[in-house]
Every structure is written in C-alpha cells, then in structure tokens.
## 1
Amino acid sequence: MTYYQQFAIADSHYKVSTNSPQISEKLRHLFAGFKTHTPPESSPIPFEINQSADGRINVFPQAKKPRSYTSVDECISLLELRLVRSAFDKMHFIGIHSGAVVCNGKTILFPGRSGKGKTTLTLGCLLRGGSFLSDEMALIEPNTANAYAFPRVLCNKTDLSLFQALDDQNHLQQPRTTLFLNNSHCISPQAFDNIPQKQPCSIDAIIFPNYQLEHDTTLLPVSPIQSLQKLLKLTYKRTQNPQLLDTLGQIVESVPSFELTMNNLLEAIERVERFAN
Amino acid sequence: MPTELTKDIITREIEGQLVLYDPSQDAVHTLNPTAQFVWERITLAPKQIAKELESTYTVSADVAQKDVENILEQFKTLGLIQTPPPQ
C-alpha cells in the first residue's frame, strides 16, 4: 500500500509517497504547521520514502541521489532540516537560532546558543498563554523584517518537572534540551497544532536568554550594535545573504534588545510578561 | 596611491556608528568616528584622507597623517583592504 502526504513550505510544494504508515504519520505530524503558509502555485515536487525489509529507510528525491537512513526518526529529522532550509533559502528568509513567541500580543525573539535557555523561555511563555512561533529558528522575511512561524519538531526538556513546577519558584536545574522525535510523552507539536501564528508577526523585542545558575534574574538593555553582533553570530548561512545586515540592522534599530540573565524560570517569565504588558 | 577593498564588505550605520560585515571572514567590525571618517574615504589616497581629516577635526598635519596610517594598517590587518598605505 502506498501512502501520500503533501505539504507546503514557503513557496515549495512537496508530495511524498511512502510504503510505511509510520513514516506517513510522522510526516503529517511534522509538517502540519507549514500548511499555514501561502499556498504555492507550482506543482508539487514528488519524492519517495520507502522502508526496506531490513528496516532501512531509503529516500528517493526527484533528480537527486537516493539516501539511506538507519531509522525513521533519523530520516525524518534530516529530511525536515534539508527541506525546510532549502525552501526558506529560496525565499531568502533569514533564519536565526532563536525561540519566538507572541506574549500578550507582542512578538518576542529569544535568540541564543544551545543551553542558554531559549527553549525553556519559549515553552514557559506558552504554558502561560503565549502563542508559538518557534523554539529553534526564528524565520525573518528580509524585506519586511517580519517573523514567521517555524513549527518544526519541538525540543523537549529532559526534565518535565521543570514546567510542572512553574508555580513553585523552581530553579533551573537542567536547561539543556534534546531533540525529541517520539511523540509519546513530550511537549510535542500536537500540543501546539492549534496555536501557531498564521500571519507574519512584526517583532516587538529581542531578549537574549542567558542561563546563569549563580546569578540573579535580571533583564538589562543591550545596545543595538551589541544586539546586531549577537544576532549575526546566531544567523544561519549569514555569509550568503547580502540583505542580512540591512534587515538585522533595521530590527535592532526599531525594537529594544535585552539580556535576560536567569536562574529562575518563573521569575524570568514574569520579567518577560511584565515587559510585554 | 588609493587603497582598494579586498572584497565585498557590507556596511550599515547603526545609531551613528558604522558597522562593517565581512562575509568572507564572517566578521563584524564596529568603527569609531575617526575610522569611519577614513573608511568613507577609503578610495582616496591616504594623503588626501589625512588632509581632509586635518581640516575636519582641526588636528595637526602630523597627527592626521599618523592616524590615517594607523587606521589603514588596522584595516589591512583585518583583511579589509588590499594595498598598504604608501610610506
């Protein structure tokens, strides 16, 4: 039996055929959010993903060399990154390693390297009623400097008690995250299926999270130039985008930037909420 | 002899400060006002830049000349320009 999934990313439209119901379901789940982007006019790009008898996953992209993976999760993860990046590259979108939420109607980016707390802040804000844009990559349209939702696989906290204890003044013990493709018990895209922003969002603030267990929670302003320098370091494929400096410059000049040093999630989120109010 | 840029440098002014982004080295440089003055005249001969610096900032010719030479040397060290300033 052959299963089909279609999805749209930016201006690209894909049609996948597979012999595996598991792969089909994972693709459906993974790309659900991308259907919210502008429907493409072009005909879909077909490719096949088939599971062989020995369990290997073989991907046959159109007019490209086939690839083979050892597990469904590995295949889906790499496929997702490849497709998403290639599609957004075509649109010249700027991808910043950043969480992004809409909190009290304000769009806030949390740019940062792994372990700085961007996923923690993003998920914390969501649990307090914010809307999800991304916990991994903020997508910026270069001409308007608007942020778009990037509802890819969410990072999952290894310790969910962190979030259950949001009201208990819980200190951050394990800020690091792991990519989590098994949907069984994580804060997964399922939880956010209904809330990704369907419209581009005008950015209202940039908050650089800085997890520091030994420091108090503080929200301090960052100059536009410092902000620009930090953002540049966190931008994907920055050397290939001639519009990059103009777009990021436009953002840092028009919205405030802060560094949020944090050792306490609840306090940190309250700082963000106070700012957003 | 005018100085030449080694490659495409992307520039943008942020709050009155000039920021240079060098994609080939993936490096960001923020210029102080004097360096910015020199950068904006980078295609002129160093002597001409020094002359303009002297009149704009009312500094002595010697100081202007040394400032320009130092800044061009720094630009060269950073790989932003190709031709060393003539002695």
## 2
Amino acid sequence: MAYAIIVGGGKIGYYLARSLINNDYEVLLMEKSAAQYRSLSADLGDVVMQGDGCDPLTLKKAGIERADLLVAATGDDPDNLIVSQMAAHCFGRTRIIARINNPDNGELFEHLGVHERISGTTAILNLIGQKVSRAPVVLLGALERSNIEAVELILNEGSPLIGAQLSEINLPKDTLIISVLREGHAMLPNAGMVFEKDDVLIALIPPELESALREFIV
Amino acid sequence: MKVIIVGCGRVGSRLALRLAARGHNVTVIDEVREAFLRLGAGFAGVTQHGSGLDVEVLERAGTAGADIVMALTTGDNRNLMVAQLVKQRFGVERAVARLHDPVRAAKFRELGVETLCTTTVLEGLLELYALNGHFPELPGEMSVSGDAGELEN
C-alpha cells in the first residue's frame, strides 16, 4: 500500500486525505495548530498527527523514510517551499508535490528544485477560461518537464475541418490527435473519421504550434 | 553600501536606523504601513510598502542593485524564502535570513542560505554569562543589556 504524508490540514489537505484514503493509500495528515488538529482528528482519527512539517524530526516520526509521497498543501507558499526543501534535503527519496497559492512563485520553486507543483489559482483560471471562451485552442496542461502540451481544438462553425476526413487533412507536423469528443462521447480517431461542427479534438502538440493550429482550424 | 531590510519590526527598524545613520543607503520593506512608525522622523533611508515576497515590490525597492538583503520578518519560512528569492531573481550575493528555529537554520546553511539563528545566539551569550559571570564585550556601541536611550526619537 502506498504511503502519503500530507502537510497542512486546511480544506485542500483534508479533502486530499479523504480522496487518497478512498484510493487505498495509507495517509498521514499533519497539522500544526492544536485546534485544527482536534477538529480534524475527530473526523479522521489516527490519520491526523499534530506537528510542524518543517521539522525533520517530526517528518521522521511521521515515517517519511518509508513514504512514497509528500504533499506540501498548506495555504502559505513560504511554508510549502520550506517543507518541500527540508524534506528533499533531509530525506531524498520521497516524491514531493508542493501546492502553490501565488502562481508567480512557480519559477522560484522550480529553481530551488521543487519540480512538482500544483497551483490552485492557475487551475481555476484555466477552467473558468475554458468555460467563458470560445477560443478554438484551449490549453489543458503541459506535461511535466517536457516540451509537449495537451490542447483542445474546438471546431466552431465555419472551421474548414468540418466535413473533412482525418486522412485528407494535413495537420501541422508533430500534432498528434489522441481523441475526438462528440456530443459528450470520446472516440479514438481513425483515418476515415469525418469531422463535424462542435467536435472537440484532444491533441498533443509542441507549445510553439499553438498559434499555427489556431490558424489551421478557424 | 545599498542595504535592503525586509521586515520593519524591532530588529529591522533599529538596524535600519543604525545603518542609515552611518551613511548607508537603506531601504526598509514591510507590508504593514504602521510598522514604519518605528523608524521615527529622523530616518534617512527609504521605506517601501508591500510584501518582501512580491517581485514587483522588491524591484521598486531597488533589489537588483543591493549589496545585501536582510530578511527579518517574524516568520522563519518567509525569511528563508525572501533570502532565496533575492538571490535567484535579482542576483543579490549577500542575503541573510533571521531564524528562530536552530534546526532549520543549520539545514538551510547546508543548502547555501546564510542564516542567523536568534536562539543559538542567545543561548551562546547566556552560556558565556553563566560560565564567566558577565556578558562578553560586543563591538561598537552594542550592549547585551540593551541601549534604549540612544535610538529614542
């Protein structure tokens, strides 16, 4: 059973703990404040431990040496940075994921060796952006430490691709269509597939192709 | 010398006054405007309102040209982040973080961050007092028992 330590028992830490438990993880949720610790342990019991995740002895007591994953999930970026750096420096082998509250801090975290990060703000902005925009190319996410990103290509009315067969169109080189969403169903693409209005193509592309693709599908 | 002090608390404000009085170019950053009241009217340096973790605030404070940055807020983690941020983002060579936690101070020194730990400093001074019956002489006008008179303004 994989073992995860979550530092920070706020909303994110709490729901993450529950979700990992449901996914058959062994979980330890670490919370610094006594009051918050009591209310969390009334709900989650032995899963919760009171302690400061910046303290190597506390991390050790929490069993970080056998942990597969540590998530620094507090609402404070300095705390998440120092927890991550401390854990990486003292206990090298655990995989570390840091929550970032202010997206501007991503670059510093990366530079300081905290390579896996989740920014709630960025995720929410992207989701809202997708809801409100009819932009034909929507970024779904970049693959960690690679030069490939996943995008949605939306075939709005007037797109030259509507009515065309996949095998006939010359997509820009290095574009890989991995799925086509039509009326809520995902289909695997095949050469004979004919595109329809409102189809959404999920594709893997190098980031620099984004604008070329926009030209191509509008 | 261009000095940036992040955190205008007791230590930050007194240090800022001391360095400015010696003719250094001092900028103090604090996110609580009222904190600058500690500097009094005679402060010869500059104040910059905002967070010391905010790159724009640091830019406005002239961090790129600073000889030294001292992170003296109340939070250990905040100070460690400020010290690493100014090095990484602005190429500041000398950045020191004031910490209360000796463990963190030691571990981050191993990582190349200069730290000064109030706990170990105090501990060392008190140990000398216990062994010798008096505090050691400190350089200049500093005194272990305090010097409230000099900075009243």
